[in-house]
Amino acid sequence: MTTAGTDGPGPNTLLPAEELPVGQELDCGSYQLTEQELCAFATQWDPQYFHVDPARASDSDFGGLIASGLHTMSIYQRLVVSAVYQRYDVIAGRAFRRVEFVRPVRAGDVLTCAATVRSVEPDKPGRCLVVVEGCLRNQHGRPVLRLELECLVRSRRATSAG
Amino acid sequence: MTTAGTDGPGPNTLLPAEELPVGQELDCGSYQLTEQELCAFATQWDPQYFHVDPARASDSDFGGLIASGLHTMSIYQRLVVSAVYQRYDVIAGRAFRRVEFVRPVRAGDVLTCAATVRSVEPDKPGRCLVVVEGCLRNQHGRPVLRLELECLVRSRRATSAG
User: Fold this and answer.
1) What is the pLDDT along chain A (162 residues), one digit of tens a residue?
2) Residue B95 near residue B123, CB atoms below 8 Å
3) Residue A13: what pLDDT?
4) Where does the pLDDT of residue B4 fall: very low under 50, low under 70, confident under 90, or very high at 90 and above?
5) Chain B contact present for A81, CB below 8 A
6) Which of A130, A133, A135 minimizes the C-alpha distance to A101?
7) Please, is A82 exposed, middle or buried when counting C-beta atoms within 10 Å of its C-beta (0-12, 13-18, 19+)?
8) In this complex, is the C-beta atom of A31 within 8 Å of any C-beta atom belonging to chain B?
9) Average pLDDT, chain B
10) Among A67, A99, A128, A155, whose Cα sits 20 to 30 Å from the Cα of A52?
11) Is any Cβ of chain B less than 8 angstroms from the Cβ of A92?
12) What phi and psi values does residue A60 have, to the nearest 5 degrees?
């Protein structure tokens, strides 16, 4: 499990949009999910029986508890923020394009995160629209989550390109 | 704030796909976000400064702390599960189509949730692909989150339609 500190680099050391490594796959570390955490997250945010009730879940299509998709996305976010976004001059996330829950995530799984900046395009003056593609894989190397994020990152250019 | 119990109806009382109210907007209640919760969620899952550091956030584009998009999505999920999905015979979520963070969410905001089943289509035998459109609005009636979910719901038909 990687450590997600809340102290990123200061505002003066953050990378602007034009310095992001487009096309380079970035290793964002990994995270092991426990059954206690799986149930605690889902009890608070997604209390469907296949996330919170081991007995009923054992009779479900998955044969046991699976993690909430929101929990899986939150694990992805924690890893990518700590490894990548805290170094970028991010303004905010704007949208997820398609988010796919490719395979079930179970207690004990070790999820490894990779992210790639796909494109950086001028948006309004002083900022760019950045598209990031992300993936979590389990300990067997199989994808469990695939997503694309649109976010806004500060640019050093005062005006947008035409 | 609505109460999200973990005890939904039992397996015998759950609605199959063909009984879902297609096209009807469902009121899923509301939820008030505190600053403590906003920071606690983001410290664990999305520790970007504009979610966790009030001093630096006050100099950001938003002039103060804003909630993590994952937190906003989790609030949506809690409300829709408690009001709607716990009554349906859901197998699992499969994907979010576009998820839009339309406006910033701030501490103190009261978010009201609505969801509409947009379509129910046969998938594999015994199950349907259900598309649900969801929205969170703030206390000013303005949308802050819009999304579309694809999920699988059990069907009473043993075979899929052609």
Assistant:
1) 333 344 555 556 899 999 999 999 999 999 999 999 999 999 999 999 999 999 999 988 899 999 999 999 999 999 999 999 999 999 999 999 999 999 999 999 999 999 999 999 999 999 999 999 999 999 999 999 999 999 999 998 765 444
2) no
3) 85
4) very low
5) yes
6) A135
7) buried
8) no
9) 92
10) A99
11) yes
12) -85, 180
Check B94 against A100: CB less than 8 A apart.
yes
B100 touches chain A (CB under 8 A): yes
Between A50, A95, A99, which is nearest B100 by CB?
A95
Question: Residue B128: exposed, middle, or buried by beta-carbon count in 10 A (0-12, 13-18, 19+)?
Answer: buried
B48, A96: Cβ pair inside 8 Å? no
| DSSP label of B88 | B
Q: CB-based contact (8 Å) between A46 and chain B?
A: yes
Q: What angle do CA A95, A100, A103 make, to 5 degrees?
A: 150
Q: Which residues pair with A130 in a beta bridge?
A: A120, A151
- For residues A8 and B39, the answer to whether their CB atoms sit within 8 Å is no
Q: Which of A48, A53, A62 sits opposite B81 (nearest CB)?
A: A48
Distance separating alpha carbons of residues A64 and B18, to the nearest angstrom: 26
Query: Which of B41, B60, B74, B129 is the best substitution to test chain A (most A C-beta atoms within 10 A)?
Result: B74
B11:A85 CB<8 A: no
Query: Nearest C-alpha of chain B: how many angstroms from A81?
Result: 6
B65 to chain A, any CB pair closer than 8 A? The answer is no
Q: What is the token pair recorded at A107? A: 């207690």
Q: What is the DSSP letter of B126?
A: T
Which residues from chain B sit within 8 angstroms of residue A73, using beta carbons? 70, 73
Strand B127-137: give its sheet, edge to edge.
A25-32, A110-122, A127-137, A143-154, A90-101, B90-101, B143-154, B127-137, B110-122, B25-32
